[in-house]
């Protein structure tokens, strides 16, 4: 895997819709394998977290978060992306670590295709079946750029904030030691419960959902 380097680091104050505020050190990179404009946000005392990890202590808390315009920006109820992003920002700020904002909308198929998949879901397919019906993979995300960014800032050991076992498997294969996988909260609503059940049953996401009525 090619080495990436930090291109720029800037301080960005963040404010979420519920009023929560934090400050991020936002980093851009040169040399990412897919040449997309992914971001790494250093939150909390991430430098101290790296120092402790290098000395064999607890690794920094990290969430690789896939871009979701509908959920992150417009507050869509069809997924749990926006609440997960908000939760991750606070938990990582408290403990020190990194939020990776990865430009891979719709599990890597893009925004327009994701909305096409929504239409198929309205006709009865689940989120994975819809992607396949469009001639795409169930999940086309590649975490190589995430690993490159983490290695560029010295985070070769992490505690992974995610319900998705595939993230841990990919990152481990790319040279990132996942010392612990920590599930996010369950952000269920009437509009996304079918979507969350598909993630839990189809790809073994660690999501505890209420029993179907």
UniProtKB/TrEMBL annotation:
It catalyses: GTP + 4 H2O = 2,5-diamino-6-hydroxy-4-(5-phosphoribosylamino)-pyrimidine + formate + 2 phosphate + 3 H(+). This is GTP cyclohydrolase II. GO terms for biological process: riboflavin biosynthetic process. GO terms for cellular component: cytosol. It is an enzyme of class 3 (hydrolase). InterPro entries: GTP_cyclohydro_II, RibA, RibA-like_sf. The lineage of its organism: Bacteria, Bacillati, Actinomycetota, Actinomycetes, Micromonosporales. One of its GO terms (molecular function) is GTP binding. CDD domains: GTP_cyclohydro2 (cd00641). Its EC number is 3.5.4.25. PANTHER family: 3,4-DIHYDROXY-2-BUTANONE 4-PHOSPHATE SYNTHASE, GTP CYCLOHYDROLASE II-RELATED. Residues 21-183 form the GTP cyclohydrolase II domain. Keywords: GTP-binding, Hydrolase, Metal-binding, Nucleotide-binding, Riboflavin biosynthesis, Zinc. Pathway: Cofactor biosynthesis; riboflavin biosynthesis; 5-amino-6-(D-ribitylamino)uracil from GTP: step 1/4. Its cofactor is Zn(2+). The keyword Metal-binding applies.
């Amino acid at each position: 895997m090619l080495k990436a380097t930090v291109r720029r680091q800037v301080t960005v104050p963040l404010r979420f819709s519920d009023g929560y505020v934090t400050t991020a050190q936002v980093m851009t990179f040169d040399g990412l394998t897919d040449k997309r404009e992914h971001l790494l946000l250093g939150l909390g005392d991430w430098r101290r977290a790296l120092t402790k990890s290098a000395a064999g202590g607890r690794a920094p808390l990290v969430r690789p978060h896939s871009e979701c315009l509908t959920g992150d920006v417009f507050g869509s109820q069809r997924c749990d992306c926006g609440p997960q992003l908000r939760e991750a920002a606070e938990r990582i700020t408290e403990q020190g670590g990194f939020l990776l904002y990865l430009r891979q909308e719709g599990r890597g198929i893009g925004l327009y295709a994701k909305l096409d998949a929504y239409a198929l879901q309205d006709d009865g397919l689940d989120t994975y079946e819809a992607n396949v019906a469009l001639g795409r993979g169930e999940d086309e995300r590649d975490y190589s750029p995430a690993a490159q960014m983490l290695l560029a800032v010295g985070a070769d050991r992490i505690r992974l904030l995610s319900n998705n076992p595939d993230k841990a498997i990919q990152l481990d294969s790319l040279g990132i030691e996942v010392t612990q996988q920590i599930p996010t909260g369950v952000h269920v609503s009437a509009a996304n419960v079918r979507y969350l059940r598909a993630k839990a049953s189809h790809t073994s996401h660690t999501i505890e959902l209420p029993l179907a009525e």
